Structures are given as C-alpha cells and as structure tokens.
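Can you make up a protein sequence with its backbone structure tokens?

===
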Amino acid sequence: MNEQENDEMTLPDRYKIKSIIGIDPGANGSISIYDVDTNTLVSHKMPETPKDVYDLLKTVQPWNSICYLEKVHGRPGGGSSGMFNYGKGYGYLEMALLVCQISTVTIMPQKWMKELGVGTRGDMNPTDWKNKLKAKAQQLYPQNKLTLATCDAALIVTYGIRQLNN
C-alpha cells in the first residue's frame, strides 16, 4: 500500500475523538473530561442544576467526544424519595448529553471496576471503599487533585480510554 492510500484510510482529524467524558451520576457524583490532545483530565463536582449540567457539557465538541455514563440500579433500603431524585438527575444528564449531541455509552459500575482491577466492595464499609477508589484514581492521575466526590468519574474516563484503545 502506498502512502497516499494509507492517508485515505485514516479519519479526518475533525472526526477523531478529542474528549472522553466520564460521569458518575447523582448529587454527590461528578463529571470528568479528558482531553486526548493534551493528555489532561479536568474533574467537576456534579453541577447543581440542569442548566449548570448543560452549560458544562456544551463546552465539549460533540463530534469529537464520547461519554461513558455510569448506570446504577436502585439499592434496597435506598428510599423512594432518594431514588426519585436520583432518577430525575439521571434524566437531566441524559437530556443534556442528547441536546449537546454527545455520543453516550452507559456502563454498569461492575464492568468498569473489573476492567480497572479494583475488585468489588464486598464487606468494606462505604468510606473504605471510596478511599480505595480514590487511591486508584490518584495513582492514575497524580497531577490532579481528586476527591472522594470526583474519583469515580475519573476512573470511568480511564475505562473509556481503554475501550477506545482496544
């Protein structure tokens, strides 16, 4: 194959993924955006309003982006009010991604956790488990100040990077 044929087989730069978004939904969740060109990650605590979510996501070019949105099922004992609010917030995220025309892949937490080798919570208390996830995220992104609130979204981004590199 000559050089010209090889060039014709590659995607134009405008179609290459430039941003990978990871979203850990919920009021205590976060949104992380990874810039492929600069190899940088920026993490945001979950915006407080649907408009704030939209304002954050519209800064990303839709044709160059993909979002990995964590999908969580209801938890026993979670309470109907809490699950209603969680579902409402999840809907806001889906709608903002749709309006911003960002391709979205939903991912179960067990899948990204298995891919990253963090195991399962098992008998760990919630604080110890979150600290384990935070430690993993800090290991992967030592230049970032990741918190208990932002570590899951950063790890979801890492899952997305790995999926795109496979």
Q: What stands out?
A: The domain at 15-165 is CATH 3.30.420.10 (Nucleotidyltransferase; domain 5). The two ends are 24 Å apart (CA to CA).
